[in-house]
Every structure is written in structure tokens, then in C-alpha cells.
Amino acid sequence: MSRLAQFYGRNNTRGTRRRAYRPRPLLTVRTTILGKFSAGLIAIASMFVVTTTAIAQNSLPPVSAARGVALFDAICGKSLPNFRKAERSAKANSVSDKAQTGTIYSTKENFSFRISEGPGNGKTCSVVFKSKSSDSEFKRAASNILTEKKVVQTSIGNGGLYNGTALVLVSDPIRSDGETYYSLKMLSQR
């Protein structure tokens, strides 16, 4: 038997093949290392951009509950059923600073929105805004855009129907460092 046949494991006594050692080309190793390094740099840079945007967003004035809900209605509600017109509506309302995460921020007030996939087969349009309004003012403003004019408990949270077709979820307020953040989500028809 030739030495080459022995190296590749042919006709060996155990009946199994040995795998030949094949060193990786140096170019591939360098490319992999550079790829990981550049991916790390991109991740760090994107964290900086998101952090910078969030810090800048916190310095903007808060939004009244009525204004936040009106923006939600103009951006999410008027772009049903698939939210394709949401970005155009947002730009018309000075909400146009898009981060790499897909969240679009207002340049004039503390308000942001995002279109995301799911849950399920449809899309969701969500908004978050900082407000000095009370919880009751927020719920009253949110109930004004709902079909039944009231926020009710559903199987997946507080909310109601918008124009009888889309579900609006009204989240509980989040309080952080003396600030109150309100969130609304609109789920397109599933």
C-alpha cells in the first residue's frame, strides 16, 4: 500500500477512514479574525448611536397625553392595515430621526415609534412617549380613539378596538427617575 493511501486511511486494519489534516489557508484565518473584529466595532458603534439618541431624546420636552395619543392615531391609525404609510405620516409630524434599531424619534419632543413584525402574522406599530399627564388623562385620551370609547381588559392586556378592525393595547405607565413613560401598541388585523 502506498504512503498516500495510508495517510487517507484506505485499507487500514480497523475499517474506518482517518480524516486527513488540512491546514486552513492563512488568508481565511485573517479574513475571519478581521471579520470578527469589524463586527465588534460595528456593534460598539451602533450601541453608541443608540445611546446617544436615547440621551438626546431625554433632553426633549415631554408630550401631553392628548398629543401623544393624537400622534399615535396619525402615525399608526391612519396607516392601517399594513402601516406602510407610517414613516410618511411621522415625517409630517416631525418624527423623522431613524436609529439603526428601526425606532424613529421625534426631533422636537420626547416621542418615538416603531413598526415591528408580529406577534403572529401581522405587524405592530408601537409608540412610547414621556409625559407629565396623569394616568387618568392618558387613559381618557387613549379611550377617545377607540371604537367603544373605553379601555377594557382583554385576554392579552388593557385595550380596545380601533375602527373595529385593529387591536390597541394600552400599557401601564413606566416610571423612571421621576419621569412617566406611556406606551401604546396597535396590532394590524390578523
Structure, briefly:
The protein is an alpha+beta fold. The protein has helices at about 5, 25-60, 65-75, 85-90, 135-145, and strands spanning about 95-100, 105, 110-115, 125-130, 150-155, 155-160, 165-170, 175, 180-185. Strands 1, 2, 3, 4, 5, 6, 7, 8 and 9 form a nine-stranded antiparallel beta sheet that branches.
Could you explain the architecture of this structure?
Helix 3 packs parallel to helix 5. The protein folds into two domains: 59 residues; 123 residues, no CATH class. Strands 1, 2, 3, 4, 5, 6, 7, 8 and 9 form a nine-stranded antiparallel beta sheet that branches. The protein is 35% helix and 26% strand.
Quick tags:
9-stranded antiparallel β-sheet; single chain; 5 helices; 190 residues
Give the termini distance in whole angstroms: 68 Å
**How many structural domains are formed by the residues?**
2
Determine the strand fraction and express it as a percent band.
Answer: 25-35%
Helix-strand topology string: HHHHEEEEHEEEEE
Uncertain residue segments: 4-8, 27-55
Which structural class best describes the helix and strand composition?
A: alpha+beta
Portion in helices: 25-40%
Estimate the global geometry from the Cα principal axes.
globular
- Sheet having the most strands: 9 strands, antiparallel
| Average pLDDT rating | 76
Instruction: Please count the beta strands (DSSP E, at least 2 residues each).
Output: 9
> Helix tally?
5
